[in-house]
Amino acid sequence: xxxxxxxxxxxxxxxxxxxxxxxxxxxxxxxxxxxxxxxxxxxxxxxxxxxxxxxxxxxxxxxxxxxxxxxxxxxxxxxxxxxxxxxxxxxxxxxxxxxxxxxxxxxx
Length: 108
Known about the structure:
Strands 1-2 form a two-stranded antiparallel sheet. It has one domain. By secondary structure, it is mainly alpha-helical. Strand 1 (56-57) and strand 2 form a beta hairpin. The chain has 6 helices and 2 strands, in the order αααββααα. The protein starts with a helix and ends with a helix.
């Protein structure tokens, strides 16, 4: 959340809801972990086809095919670490960042 906190106003009177489709975050996770990935946003189901394909994903145990908040929290940390790389690989990530910056500019 640190990335969003840097862009969003902390004034309780201002409320915004930003949503990210789950397939987008799954693509961003793959982009963060896979250095040689291309066209990841074209993969139909990144979670099923890449992340949860085995029992482990880059040393992180993925129990079953279901997504959990605990696993997402671990995976998303890498997305935040590698955000610039994710934006280069995933146009939707760059669009999301630009949208957040635009909203922030409205409330400054």
